[in-house]
Specification:
single chain; about 140 residues; alpha+beta; 60s Ribosomal Protein L30, Chain: A; two-stranded antiparallel ribbon
Length: about 140
């Protein structure tokens, strides 16, 4: 059982939640970019609702492609500056949690990478492959 798809979205890192105190209450919220990215991912993966059953170990392979800034040196071939790969993965998993798979605790293996895209439209995208993890090695 395997599912592979492409999300048409510039990768966004999961930021830290912000906390404010108003009217005697504590409010916790994420930035607008994080909320918009999660909603965009959920909208694109909604067609895969309940694709994987409960109690099934899953392997996740993610490659994020971001547009390349024209101000970067030509010799820089990998996006090592910003954003952290683990934060991008957190946002993707949180957005798919409860939609594609019932619980993100089912993910036992993660293989991830980030790259620059050569697409002429200069838009980023995310390639995701999810499959049953049979041996724990992806």
């Amino acid at each position: 059982m395997e599912l592979t798809f492409d999300l048409l979205l510039e990768p966004v890192p999961q930021g830290r939640p912000r906390v404010t105190y108003r009217n005697g209450r504590v409010w916790t919220f994420y930035s607008d970019a994080v909320v918009a990215a999660k909603e965009a991912i959920r909208a694109q993966v909604l067609k895969y609702q309940d694709y994987f059953p409960k109690h099934l170990p899953l392997s996740l392979t993610v490659t994020t492609y971001r547009h390349r800034s024209p101000y970067l040196p030509k010799r820089e071939v990998l996006p090592f500056r910003r954003a952290d790969l683990d934060n991008e993965i957190k946002l993707i998993i949180d957005a798919m949690n409860g939609v594609v798979f019932p619980d993100d605790a089912a993910i036992t293996t993660i293989i991830a990478s980030k790259r620059y895209t050569d697409a002429p439209s200069n838009n980023g995208h995310i390639v995701i492959a999810i499959r049953e993890d049979t041996d724990g090695r992806g």
